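It is time I had a proper look at our fold encoding. Can you supply me with one protein entry, sequence and fold together? It will help me judge whether the discrete encoding reads sensibly. Leave the record below and I will have a look:
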Amino acid sequence: ACPTPNCPMRVALEDGGLPRLKCTLCGKTSCLRCGLPWHRGQSCEEARRRPKRKRDEGMAELMQWIEETGTKQCPPCRMA
């Protein structure tokens, strides 16, 4: 199955096949072994250990600012 949340695509991994899925429904490229984004040249374990992306850090800072300032998010679009 495509590991992207809410994506209904279902596939089977063939023995000995490359575990890379370029989903035709959601457009994401994922590793079918671990569910992470495709990590060419890295094992699944190496990919799990890599640092979180800066975007994740920025989102944490934004959520802290929203809480500290009492800002509300728009329910449909989640903009502050």
Remarks:
- The chain has a mean pLDDT of 82.
- The chain has two helices and two strands.
- The helical segments are 44-49, 54-69.
- The radius of gyration is 17 Å.
